[in-house]
C-alpha cells in the first residue's frame, strides 16, 4: 500500500511538472502578446473624440520597438483625432488567421502583409481599392515603381508598399581568399570558378541555394542565368517558363549540384546557411538585409560584417537579377475606420515616417527620398541592397501566385531529385501554372 | 393480458416521456445547440461547399460547379500520394499500436511488477503532451546532418550507417519518422484501455484454470484474449479512425514534403483550403474522406458485431 502511495505521488508530481511546463510556456506566450498591446493602456486618459485605427503588423522585436517609441507618438501627434492600436501578429499561420478574420468580419483596419499576398487577398475581395482613395496619386508619385506594382490587381491598386528588400550574395571572407579570390565574383563564370576552387579546398559546400521549396530561394540564380517565368504582361507561362533559356538556366544549376558545387542545403541538408557561412563550412549564400540586422544585434554571435564580403548576385546571361521581397500596407474592405486607416497608410509612406523606420530597423524604404537618407545609407550594408534593387525583379503579381509558386518549386525539386529531366519538369510546371492563371 | 390494458399503458408512457423531455430540455438545450452549430451545421455546410467554387468572403457569390471538385482530385498526383499514405499509415501503425498496447498492458498487469501506476502514467504522458511540441522534438531528433540526435547516435557514436541520413528529406525515411511519432503518441492510449480491461477480468477464472493445470500461455490464450475481445474491437476501430485522422504528425514534421510524397488527406485538405484558398475542392476531399472512414468502420462494426465471443 505504501508503495502504491509513493508511485501515485510520483505520477501526480510528474503530471504537475509537465502541466506547469506547458502552462508556463503558454503564459509566456500570452504575456508576450499582451505586451504588444501595451500601447492601449497608455491612452487611458484619452479624450472621447479619438477613433481607433486597428493595425496588424508583423515586425520583429527590434522593429516593433521603433513602432512603439517613435512611429506611434509621431503619428498621434500629427493626427490627434486617431489612436493607433498596434497588434503584433506571428508569421506562423498568419495567412490562416487573416482568412479567418476576414471571413468572420473581424479583420483589422489595416495590415502589413507580404507583397505576394496582396493580389491574392484582393482577388478574394478582402481588400479596399486604395487607388480610388483621396490623395493616392500623390502617394504613388513618391514611391518606387516596382514595389508599387506588387499591389496591382485587375488594373487597380490594393495597397501601398511599406518597405522593400532583396537578396545579395554573401561570401565567407576566409574561404573566398583561400580559393584565391580577393573580391566577390562578378559573373556566373567567376562564381563557378571560385566554387570549384573552394570545393578543391574541401569546404562542405560552395554555393548555397537556400532550397527548392519556394521560388524565392532559387529565383536569383534562375533569372541571372537567363531564365524567365512569364511574358511581360504576366498572362502566360508556356513558352517562357519552359523556354530554351529557362531550361538551360536550371540545367546549369543542376550541373553545379551534380558536381558538388551547390551544397546539400538545397534539399534540406545541414548545417543551415547562416551557421555554415559563420563557421566557414560554406563559401557563399544569398540573403536579405535581415541577415545582417538580426545577427548584428545578436550579442552571442559574431557580427557577420566582420567575416563576410558582399556583392551583387553574379551576372549571367540575364544580368544580375535578384528577387524583390517586402511588405505592403493594405486596408481591409470591411474596415471600421477606413478613413483613418488610409490616413495612416499615407503617412507611413511619407519621407519622415519612412526615414524613422529605415534608420531604426534597416528596412529599405519604398519612398524615393527616404531611400537617399544619409543616416540610413550609413548602415554598412544598405548601399549594397539599394544597388541590387535597381536590377532586381518582382515575382509575378498574380492572385494564384502562391499555388503557382508551389507548382514551379515542386517540379524544380523533381529535377534535383533526379525524377524528371529539366525540359519535362518545366513543361509540366508551365502547363499547370497556366491552368491556375486561367482559372481566375 | 388483453389489448385494452396495453393501450393506456402506452399512452401514459408517451405522456410521461413528453413530461420527462420537458424536464430535461433546459439541461440538454445548450448541448443540442452546441452540437447543431458546431457539428451538424458544419457537416452539411461542408457537403454543400464541396459542390461549389466557394468564396470565403461574407456575401460573395459561390457558383455551383457540380462534381468538378470531386473529379479534379483524381487527376492530381498529390491526391494519390495522400490516399496512399493515409492507407499506409493505417496498415502500418494500427497493428503495431494494437500489439504494443496489449503487450505492455499485460506486462504491467503482471503480479510481480511494481509501480504499476507510475508505468501507466509514463505511457500516458505522450498522449497529453502537445502535438506541436512533440512534432518539433521529432524534427530535431531526426534533423539531417550529424547535428540531429538520431544521426549523431547512429553515425558519430555507433557508426552503423555510412553517412548521416537526411531523414525528413527522403520519402521513406520521412514516413518512418511520421509513423514512429504516431505510434509513440498513441500506444499509451491502447495500453490504458487494455489495462482497464485486464483488471476487469475476474481473478477466479485464472485461479480455476490454474487449479486445472493451465500454464501462463494457456491462461493468456484461453482466458485473457477472449475476455478482452469486445475491448479489442473498440480499440481497433478507434485506432483505425485515429490513423485516418493523421494530421499534425505530417503537417508539422514534413509539411507533406518532399514533393508531396508524405502528404496525407488531412494535410492536403488543410493546404488546399488555407494556403490555396480552394475551399470547395478542400471540402470535396473532406467529404470523400468522411465517407471512406464511415464505410470502413461501419462495415467492420457490422462484421464483427455478428460474431459471438464466448
From TrEMBL, chain A:
PROSITE patterns: PROKAR_LIPOPROTEIN
InterPro entries named in the record: SBP
Keywords: Signal, Transport
Signal peptide: 1-22
GO function terms (MF aspect): maltose binding
Regions of compositional bias (Polar residues) in chain numbering: 27-46
GO biological process, one term: maltodextrin transmembrane transport
Single GO cellular component term: ATP-binding cassette (ABC) transporter complex, substrate-binding subunit-containing
Region (Disordered): 27-47
Pfam families referenced in this protein's UniProt entry, alphabetically: SBP_bac_8
Family: Belongs to the bacterial solute-binding protein 1 family.
Name used for this protein in its record: ABC transporter substrate-binding protein
Organism: Paraliobacillus quinghaiensis
UniProtKB/TrEMBL annotation, chain B:
Domain of life: Bacteria
Main subcellular localisation: membrane
Membrane topology category: Multi-pass membrane protein
Domain ABC transmembrane type-1 per the UniProt entry, residue ranges: 83-300
GO biological process: transmembrane transport
PROSITE patterns: ABC_TM1
TM region positions: 24-44, 87-110, 122-142, 176-197, 227-247, 279-298
Pfam families found in the cross-reference section: BPD_transp_1
GO cellular component, one term: plasma membrane
Keywords linked to the UniProt accession: Cell membrane, Membrane, Transmembrane, Transmembrane helix, Transport
Recorded coiled-coil stretches: none
Localization per Swiss-Prot or TrEMBL: Cell membrane
PANTHER family for this protein: ABC TRANSPORTER PERMEASE PROTEIN, INNER MEMBRANE ABC TRANSPORTER PERMEASE PROTEIN YCJO
Family per record: Belongs to the binding-protein-dependent transport system permease family.
Protein name stated in the entry: ABC transporter permease
Organism per entry: Paraliobacillus quinghaiensis
